[in-house]
Amino acid sequence: MTPDIESAFAAEIDRFLDEHWPGPLFRRVSPAAWEAAANRWFAALYRRGWSVPAWPQAYGGTGWSLERRFVWERAVALADAPIMDPAGVGLVGPLVQAHGSAALCERYLEDIRAARSRWAIGLSGLSMDDEGLRARRRGADYALCGTLTGIAGLGRATHALCLAAMDGGGSGVFTLSTTSDGVDLVDTQTLAFAEAQADLLSPPGAGLDALDAVLWGSQAPLAVTARVEAQLVRIRDGLAAIADGCGGYLDADADFKRRLSGLEVRLGSLRVLEARSLADRCAGEQRLGACGVKAGMLALGCADLERQLGELRIDAAGYYALPQPDPLLTDNEGPIGPGYALRPLEGMLTPLWALEAHRRLLAVQLAG
Amino acid sequence: MDFSFSEEQTLLKESIERFIQNDYGFNERQKTVQSEADFNADHWQTFAELGWLAVPFAEEDGGFGGGPVESIAMWEQFGKGLLVEPLLATVVLAGGALRLAGTKAQKQAALTGIVTGECQAALAFAEPQGRYNLADLTTAAMRHNGGWRLNGYKAVTLNGPSADWLVVSARSAGAQRDVAGVSLFLVPANADGISRRNYPTVDGFAASEVTLEDVDLDADALLGEEGGGLPVLEQVIDEGILAVGAEAVGCMEVLYKDTVEYCKTRKQFGQPIGKFQVLQHRMVDMFMEYEQAKSLMYMAAMRMAEGYGPEAQKAVSAFKVQVGKSGRFVGQSAVQLHGGMGMTDELNIGHYFKRLTMIDALFGNVDHHLKRFGSL
């Protein structure tokens, strides 16, 4: 049921993690220290040639088998180590490799591999009738006009990947620097475009298909439950530090124990589904049929589990769910309250949004 | 049973509706949240002039003698506007403790300023180890030089940063979690020995961790009976639950209505997503959850109006359970149906979601109130 693990390979990964990453509890110290450690970690990955394992070797990938990639992804997730920019590595890289010219490969791929660029993703450009983002041909290039909101990761991004409606019909995936002429940062999640020059990274009119192929393609993550498992472990540890108001601690509280057990059972079923999905992919079913459905179920199941873990974190933190996690406050004066380690509201909204998106994707896969 | 508001209550409700429509748009609210100030002082003065700060207090204390029904009429509207001014901390919590247990002199000192909008107050009742147990106190009150000396630590004190007065719960006798031996004190927030670590909360308010180190008080700082503070505290917290619960009902109404409107506009696969039956059913469930919470809001207000006791406590706990469940469902569904837009700071949806989530954490969550309901 579980993939065969080559012990020498697993041991090599453990050594690498021991050497370059402080461990799963490190995130609790301070945001600034976390950031610095993450940058050291990315540099170590790059030096070792492990920063983009899923990419083809010609573009700097490791050439690992799917099983080895699984082992690697799971070990990194359980160690709570930072992941390379998922938008750049998981979306932009594969799109450039599939549809970009040699010049675009040179422009984008090495910076992504070396963690020198940060990518924001805006896929809501087709959502509304009158608003949204449009692309029109301008000589050999394309120009973007309109507004794009709900852009994930825009605050620190150097580049953006945007889905836009094309004048010739259909959609296209476009990339550009966030500091390009004609690009205006409206707020932390919105860009306004006025004739901004952009690179097309999909066949004209087929942006959605290109994105779909990448999301469910051979480079898609394999060990998706491990991040949730790491959260669950962190919550279990955190409960032991929070008093229950009756002289005990929450790790001994019957309600919390029951809820944790329920989540562990759910995680167990998702891990088996993950192993089945991996087996399908190893057998060569890369995209369609049962393999895609299992990947969709996994994504949906993990998002829902994350939602429930978020609720558990907030319930556990009690009044200490309220303080805004302010990097300056925590850096200068230390964390506020015993619930801090649970990071109660962190990432609460993301799985909620993802839930609906995953449901729709799965419905499309099932219903055709 | 009559569920309609009286003419006076309707006027009160409508005055808040008008203020929110005309002067408290979402952008205006966000300006306040993003400013250095914890709340908008001009708005606060308007609240005083409109009499909102005086509603729950007796006429002899400068108030209007409003009760639980007036409370839900007001707070449902406050919830729709997502107000960030410290009405809960100053008027309902600290003001409530003064109303229930304050002497004439104490009311003169602190309540008068609250009613006129000139002073702010906070109830410092929570402690890190206490979770939702109001009696679990390590903050100690000792007799000292004919007065009192306080030492301890109070957690997540809402409106702590702006408060001129703190109502502090402390143990004057007994063991850490004994029901007897809890006393309340009215303490000037600038008294020697008090230090505050201030911070914003995720839902746009401000709070403090309050450290009390050899805070010396006169004998008349004691609020209510020595060792008899817990019943006062319980009633104040239940009044707070009624207020934030009604606020949550107002939040839910905005969320489901805005979600329905959005689903009529947002198109996918060539048609408004509101045409999809699965989303229609979700919106029906949101409406059902909102209405169930509203029903228990009426029940809790009526029981509280009949007199504070076990029946009222039970109704309040039932209301808080429903608010927790409904708020979670309506908030999460609204974000899901709005997709990526639901996460943006620019849209109100995520802010209502955060407020509903934090209301669940205030004064005991679903699990806590289910246990309390069963024990009463």
Brief description of this entry?
The complex is a heterodimer of chains A (368) and B (376). Chain A has 368 residues and is α+β, with helices and mostly antiparallel strands.
Oligomer: heterodimer
Strand and helix order of chain B = HHHHHHEEEEEEEEHEEHHHH
CATH superfamily of the largest domain in chain A: Butyryl-CoA Dehydrogenase, subunit A, domain 3
- Average pLDDT across residues of chain B? 94
Q: Reading side by side through the largest sheet of chain B, how are the strands ordered?
A: 1-4-5-8
Q: How many domains comprise the coordinates of chain A? A: 3
Q: Which percent band covers the strand fraction of chain A?
A: 5-15%
Largest interface: A-B, 48 and 49 residues
Kindly report the spatial arrangement of strands forming the biggest sheet of chain A: 2-3-7-5-4
Instruction: Report the principal-axis shape of chain A.
Output: globular
The major β-sheet of chain A equals: 5 strands, mixed, barrel
CATH architecture of the largest domain in chain B: Up-down Bundle
* Individual helix count of chain B: 11
Helix content of chain A: 40-55%
Please tally the helical runs of chain A, counting DSSP H or I stretches of 4 or more residues. Answer: 11
Give the tally of β-strands of chain A: 7
C-alpha Rg of chain A (nearest Å)? 21 Å
Contiguous low-pLDDT stretches of chain A (5 residues minimum) are none
The domain tally of chain B reads 3
Which structural class should the secondary elements of chain A be placed in?
alpha+beta
**Mean pLDDT score of chain A, rounded?**
84
